[in-house]
Each structure stands twice: as structure tokens, then as C-alpha cells.
Amino acid sequence: MPDFPIVDSHLHIWDPDNLNYPWLSGVSKLNRAFLPDDYRQECGVVDVDTMVFIECDAHPDEARPEVDWVNAQATIDPRIKAIVAFAPLDLGDAVRAHLERLADVNRVRGIRRIYQDETDTEFCLRPKFVEGVRALSEYGLSFDICIKHPHLESSIELVRKCPDTSFVLDHIGKPDIRQQLFEPWRAQMFELAKLDNVVCKLSGVATEADHENWTSEQLHPFIDTAFEAFGSERVMFGGDWPVALSAIHFPRWIEIVDTELAGLSETEARNVFRDTALRFYRII
């Protein structure tokens, strides 16, 4: 385990009795409230001193209420230092009204608009979506890319088209770990890493494997690729709790990442477990 407090750059909390999350109706294991106290218990002996809340795909009409609710939760657990909120970036320039309201919230540091389930793998290159993503830099907001690996090629082009926007690739681009499918994902990771306005989030890895039968040996080559492509200064740790509970508990994920870092210096380990996230989400 790390001998210093860590930053969890990918935390979800929700309460279905408070806000509407349509996707939870099909996931019985997760269809209940997950609150800061539950997360604290899940962490066990792991010392987490800073968390970044990532929007939880609530009904689009409840994007701002979600931010307000998380802000209230942060008064209960002040370790929640930053929020990545939802905004309908596919509205193009019309999204600015949403961004102006969100940018006024001190903790909001970024935007996520999931497009992993869009059947059009070039969805993110539609002109209005590109306009919306380009607008983020004007409000000091970053963009969390949440995709599955077939969307990675077009996402690379999106990053190229938006050089003034800062990006982080969630869940190492969700490669097909279950089938041990490395290409073209691996080559695309190196291509993406050539662009200096993007970093990589080491999160949600076990959930892309067989939830019941994965082994750490199956995960390691994919984790190694993320490090080889981006280096420790551009990789950040994320727990993806409680979504990750479908495959792994938080302390076990920490152990796996810590094992990967065994050959690195303390500075490099602190980059992954702390400093990259603090820099990217402007918490320091």
C-alpha cells in the first residue's frame, strides 16, 4: 500500500431516492444509495485525502441538481475537492449557457458527456459536439473522455481538433480485456499520448475483464501499456467506486496498481497516486 495519502480521481456517489439515474434500473447490485460514509468503509485502511467526483449519468435534466447535491455532500466529507459535471456538449455553442452556470460553482473543474454507447463511433466528431468541447477551455473546464475502445480512433481526432481543451481519458479507453484484445487499442494509446493536452486515468480496468474470473495477470499488460504510452507524469489513479464493485473492491485495486509501481521512484508513484490528478483538476 502507498505510504502517503492518495487522491482518488474518479469517485461516484449517488442516491436514487434523490435524483433519477435511468441506467441503475438494469443494474440491481448498484441500484441503491452509495454515499461518502459507504466509500469511507470501502477504503478500509487506504488513506484517501482527496476525491474528484465524476458525474453519474443522471437524467440530463438533473445535471445541475446533481452538482448541488454533491456540493452538499462535500460539506459532510470535505475530501471531495473537485467535481466533473455533465453538460450537453452536443448542443454546440448553445451549451455555453449550461457552462456559465456550472463554471460559477467553485468545485466544478471539468465536464463529462459520455458517448461510449453511441452507435456512431464518430459521434464525437460531429461539428456541434466539437464546438461544445472547444468551448470548455474558455470556462477553464477540462473534458473527461468516457468511451469504449471502438471510439478511441475518433477521440484522438477530437483531441487534435481541440488543442486548447485539456482532456483525460477515463478507464484507459476501456479496452477489451475480457477477450485480451490489444490491437488496435494499444497502437491508438501511443498515438493519443503524442498529444500533449491529454492525460490518462488508470481506472475501471477490472470491469473490462470477466467480472467473476479475471486475474491480475490479465490486467497487467493493459496497465503497462498506459504507463508506457503516457508515463507517470500523465497517468492518474482512479477508483471508479462503486461501479467497479461489479468486479473488484477498492483495496484490491490499490494493491494491483501499487504492484505495478514497485519499480518506479517515489516521485513517479506520487505522480500516479496524487500529483497528476491534483495538477490536472487544479486542486493545487
Describe this structure in words.
- The protein is α/β, with parallel strands linked by helices and 284 residues long.
- It has a single domain, classed as Metal-dependent hydrolases (TIM Barrel, Alpha-Beta Barrel), CATH 3.20.20.
- 35% of the residues lie in helices and 14% in strands.
- The chain contains nine helices and eight strands.
- The protein has helices spanning 36-43, 63-76, 96-103, 127-135, 152-161, 185-193, 216-230, 250-260, 266-280; strands spanning 6-11, 48-54, 80-85, 108-112, 142-145, 167-169, 198-202, 235-237.
- An eight-stranded parallel beta sheet has the order 1-2-3-4-5-6-7-8.
- Strand 4 (108-112), helix 4 (127-135) and strand 5 form a beta-alpha-beta unit.
- Helix 6 packs parallel to helix 7 (216-230).
- The longest helix has 15 residues, at 216-230.
- The radius of gyration is 17 Å and the shape is globular.
- It starts with 5 loop residues before the first strand and ends with a helix.
- 45% of the residues are buried.
- The model has no long low-confidence stretch (mean pLDDT 97).
Task: Give descriptors for this structure.
single chain; 284 residues; alpha/beta; TIM Barrel
Provide the CATH architecture. Answer: Alpha-Beta Barrel
CATH fold-level label: TIM Barrel
The Cα radius of gyration reads 17 Å
**N to C succession of SSEs:** EHEHEHEHEHEHEHEHH
Q: What count of helical segments does DSSP give?
A: 9
Gross geometry: globular
Model regions low in confidence, pLDDT < 50 over at least 5 residues:
none
Strand order of the largest sheet: 1-2-3-4-5-6-7-8
pLDDT averaged over residues = 97
- Provide the structure class: alpha/beta
**Number of discrete domains:** 1
Percentage of β-strand residues:
5-15%
Name of the CATH first level: Alpha Beta
Largest sheet: 8 strands, parallel
**What would you call the quaternary organization?**
single chain
Q: How many runs of DSSP E, i.e. beta strands?
A: 8
